[in-house]
Amino acid sequence: MAAAFLLCPRLALPLRRGSRLLVCCSASASSSDFSCLADAAGGVGFQGKVGFLGLGIMGAPMASNLIKAGYDVTVWNRTKSKCDPLLSLGAKFESSPAGVASSCDVTFAMLADPESAAEVACGTNGAAEGMALGKGYVDVSTVDDATSKLIGKHITSTGASFLEAPVSSSKKPAEDGLLIFLTAGDESLYKRVAPLLDVMGKSRFYLGDVGNGATMKLVVNMVMGSMMVSFAEGLLLSEKVGLDPNTVVEVISQGAINAPMLSLKGPSMVKAAYPTVFPLKHQQKDLRLALALAESVSQSIPTAAAANELYKVAKSLGLADHDFSAVIEALKAKVHSSQQYRLFVQLA
Q: Which of 77, 133, 276, 303 has the fewest C-beta atoms under 10 angstroms from its C-beta?
């Protein structure tokens, strides 16, 4: 039992989540790690104003959950109209990331890619310009470790604290407050914002130094992207040999390789429907970043490399903004191209 608590020393029931069990894990354990048990029993949650930058597929429902939980939230987005639904829920608006950071005690950022995350944090009128001693910045975007460290350097140079906290999951879990946070950086900030993370997620992991959260997220998304390609190949192969792909989905869902992602995406993929939950362009971006990470440590990841090429093909087919399960269309296109080539050879 002692070993179990060493690996996962913090278990608590969140203040605003009914009877759902929240799992909180830390790389190290101490007596203070059990403070969240006191919080669950009626302790004090986060006190202060919360900022949220980036209101896309993930950011909007995350910010919405904070507002519905009763927190004082100020928002910003490049396209101001995306703020309107949150303003109707009671959020406040600032015209720049700097304005949000200046007016809030803790600011969250959920941006689409490393370039956007760095610009919003470090650029002109960026969040860093509104930071000061006692404030905190929590970047929940998916970026590479170098970008996370760059943002952290700019934020901490102001005297503020920095925590990276990329999320594992997609749109529906974001809406339901069931995200998984992979955090790293300032541990005191991690403990300070824990009640906010608990509103938006079902579990949180503290992984140590800045960069570890970003790296963990890239590993997870690398596996996810590769799994989807293999699943797509299976669906197409089954159809080619006369099997019902719907039955394939059902069989997989009841076996050892069952995964919620496959059960969720399979029926739509069979119908060639790809409602966007996690954009294909973001999956390809994460594979690209994972490949760069692997290159930096001389680790071969050929399966991920092959998957990345298929996502690139899918993007070239105009599927960048579709769900990442649309990668199956890249495989269909390759089959069609091969058939055309064989026909050309026969006619020649």
A: 133
Question: Dihedral of CA 92/98/99/101: which sign?
Answer: positive
pLDDT tens, residue by residue, 61-86: 999 999 999 999 999 999 999 999 99
Catalytic residue among 217, 265, 281, 315: 217
Asked if residues 24 and 204 have their Cβ atoms less than 8 Å apart, the reply is: yes
AA identity, residue 237:
L
Instruction: Identify which of 76, 147, 180 has the alpha carbon closest to the alpha carbon of residue 292.
Output: 147
Please spell the DSSP secondary structure of 142-208, one letter per residue.
Answer: ---HHHHHHHHHHHHTTT-EEEE--EES-HHHHHHT-EEEEEEE-HHHHHHHHHHHHHHEEEEEE-S
Q: What tokens were used for 38?
A: 């006191």
333's CB contacts (< 8 A; 6+ apart) are 313, 317
| Contact criterion met (CB below 8 Å) for 161 and 189 | yes
Distance separating alpha carbons of residues 130 and 134, to the nearest angstrom: 12
Q: Is 68 a catalytic residue?
A: no
Check if the beta carbon of residue 137 is closer than 8 Å to that of residue 109.
yes
Q: What is the mean pLDDT of the chain?
A: 88
Tokens describing residue 305: 């490399």
Give CA separation, 168 vs 194, 229, 241, 263, 345, in Å.
Answer: 16, 19, 35, 18, 47
Cα separation, 230 vs 144, in Å, equals 25
